[in-house]
Amino acid sequence: MVPFSSLSPLALLVSLSANVVYAAPRSSPLSLSMTLSRRAPEARSPDEIGSWAQAHKANVETKYGNPSSKAKRSSGQNLIVNQKADSSFFGSVAIGTPPVAYDVILDTGSADLWLASSTCTESACEGIATFDSSSSSSFQNKSTEFSITYGSGDAAGTLGEDIVQMAGFSVSNQVFGVCDQVSDGLLNSPVSGLLGLAFQTIASSGASPLWETLASSGAWDQPLMAFQLTRFNNDSKATDLEPGGTFTMGATNTSLYTGDIDYNDIPDNEESYWLQTVSSITSQGSAITISSGSSALAAIDTGTTLIGGPADAVAEIYSNIPNAEAGTGQLEGYYIYPCSTTVNVTMAFGGKSWAISNADFQAEQLNEDTCMGAFFSLTTGNNAPAWIVGDTFLKNVYSVFRYNPASVGFATLSAEALAMNGVNAAVPSATIGSAAATISATATAGTRDANGASIIQSLLSGPALSLLVIAMTIVFSSVCI
Ligand SMILES: *[C@@H]1O[C@H](CO)[C@@H](O)[C@H](O)[C@H]1NC(C)=O
Ligand SMILES: *[C@@H]1O[C@H](CO)[C@@H](O)[C@H](O)[C@H]1NC(C)=O
Ligand SMILES: *[C@@H]1O[C@H](CO)[C@@H](O)[C@H](O)[C@H]1NC(C)=O
Ligand SMILES: *[C@@H]1O[C@H](CO)[C@@H](O)[C@H](O)[C@H]1NC(C)=O
């Protein structure tokens, strides 16, 4: 979610689990005697010896904390949970000593990590796992206030620093918010907080985000992270929590997509949100007029459920759908249309054009005949992206967020990925993986970066948006972030 608005009528959260299995120490056999004999060493090539030597050195240096040693490059996967029929997608991180796992929304639309605190007495914190700083021996209190505002509410507390692990990676000094003030509806059980996956420039804490520390340190095989998100919104048997797909750090998972990844650079290298330029939208085969310049900028946001855009472009999308009408009252800014219409909307960001399935366009069924579409009209501040492209779009592609060169890529989902849609199953639980690589963030926490502050303030200056979010919260009584 972009800080300021939660646009998701149906927010859901799921728990994700780290891919890495925690290896229990092997118990030693009680009594076992064996004959030791010396074997002739197998001949190894110079290459084999060289790679063994490199790995050995890196392992020992990591173990004994040589600050200049580069951990072995690697990649890892975190299984996602799909909450409330595609309303939200969550994964898990493990924090502290001993590590405790928490479910967190995976949000490419913001850049802070925060968790509800065990000292939070507000109703929003009831029934969820909360972070108890006194039970982690490695926790350090930064004694700096932290707050972040989304359209659907806010979270506030203090900043702390601790070991944070995810997908087999570990950052030894990750700064995050420990929040004792959390607005109602911001967290849906079992979710305990949010992991921001956008750039440090928009972090309210000023701290380097977990992903950016890992990407910039060279810990990853490739400087990118990728998502495959499942679809359950057209599955009447969907339960609150369903398997949500796959989040991969440091690599793409080639079994989840086919063909090439179509990358488009972040315009002007403006690393804040994961920005893209909307180059074309079609609805029912007709091209929509897209303004140029800043009104074509879009944030690609896993933390937003639907797709918001400028009022005139959104109106034009619906003008091609017979009998579509602007919503009124609590549906102000949204559109309704006959559910029997199969809608085909495509979007492009400079390269290939990607189709949104009818199942995703049809965001809500209001009654037997009337549906609500997934595109809504959005008013953002001057420096904010005009479009927020959320899960409605992202469920239709394999999405890649590349650090260097800074770009977003999309690819066609594989048959294996598509086969996970609507398959009701038990969800992965938050687990603690074993960390393959430990990295230290070099950036220190400070107050909010000036650039971040200006972007967030401008986002907040869109009064229509917050009204919209309040309306949606009432209508769907779900979390909008
Ligand atoms: C950090 O210290 C401040 C006092 O400086 C205290 O109010 C706050 O509760 C502490 N936070 C945590 C998470 O321990
Ligand atoms: C949901 O939508 C997808 C994509 O349009 C379709 O393949 C699938 O059959 C639909 N599932 C149900 C249960 O309607
Ligand atoms: C790729 O994704 C599939 C499906 O989630 C998973 O089974 C597989 O382990 C993943 N591969 C890697 C290398 O992570
Ligand atoms: C959707 O519209 C695009 C653009 O006109 C078109 O190329 C595509 O074939 C359409 N898809 C379907 C399923 O009709």
Structure, described:
There is one protein chain. The chain has 481 residues and is an alpha+beta fold. It has 2 domains: 17-21 and 75-225 and 437-476, Acid Proteases (Cathepsin D, subunit A, domain 1); 253-418, Cathepsin D, subunit A, domain 1, CATH 2.40.70. Helices cover 15% and strands 33% of the residues. It has helices at 46-63, 210-217, 311-319, 358-361, 391-394, 415-418, 450-460, 463-476, and strands at 17-18, 76-83, 88-95, 100-107, 113-116, 140-150, 153-166, 169-182, 191-196, 224-229, 241-249, 257-265, 275-277, 280-283, 286-287, 297-300, 307-309, 325-326, 335-338, 345-348, 353-356, 362-365, 370-373, 375-377, 387-389, 398-402, 407-413, 437-439. Residues 4-71 and 443-481 have low confidence and may be disordered. It binds 2-acetamido-2-deoxy-beta-D-glucopyranose (4 copies). Residues 234-235, 357-359, 422 line the site of one 2-acetamido-2-deoxy-beta-D-glucopyranose (NAG).
| Strand composition percent | 25-35%
Oligomeric form: single chain
The distinct bound ligands, ions and cofactors come out as: 2-acetamido-2-deoxy-beta-D-glucopyranose
CATH architecture descriptor text of the largest domain: Beta Barrel
Say how many strands there are.
28
- In total, the number of domains comes to 2
Q: Helix content range of the residues, please?
A: 10-25%
Please write the CATH class name of the largest domain. Answer: Mainly Beta
Mind telling me the C-alpha Rg?
23 Å
